[in-house]
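TOPIC: backbone geometry
CONTENTS: sequence, structure tokens:
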Amino acid sequence: MTSTLDENWKHLLNDELEKEYFKKLIQFVDQEYKNHIIFPPQKDLFNAFNLCSLAQTRVVILGQDPYHDMNQAHGLCFSVNEGEKTPPSLVNIFKELHADLGIEAPSHGNLTRWANQGVLLLNATLTVRAHEAGSHQKKGWEQFTDAVIHKLSQEKKHLVFLLWGAYAIKKSALIDSSKHLILSSAHPSPLSAYRGFLGNQHFSKTNTYLLENKLEPISW
């Protein structure tokens, strides 16, 4: 299954891919794909990595779990396939983007364009059973994605980590804040967006930091 993972990312994460827990995780996920409807589709499992080149990566946005309804998840956190209704959290992300930078919300919720520019849209758990939220949590994915965050923090510099909500904010312990910018706020969910996500200006702050460090800003 890891044969579908981009070679540069594979090289960066090679030690992790060889660990016993990861081999067991892949066996579990393989069986789940055979016996249940699992999201995202297997071909999209590593899209967060395959659509965002390691060399270009300069922003990391952390989600928690893939969407668990039909045709939504395609391997990028907060993102849905074109033709699907934009989920409420993403509606609020687009609202903040408009308030912050004046960018109109697109007609769809597919964030591949961000990924292609170096925004790693990483869920802590990469798979889920259809209609069973959280069903693949605590199977090993979190250990793997924590290692991704830690490795990026070690190996790169001047990344921007956007940590939205309590779960994501805990991941700041994995990040060297002397080398990277950590921006945290409430989650964009309708339940919490008004408690500090809306108005956080994370998109403009990200680009300001990138420009200050002579890096290409993101065309949000």
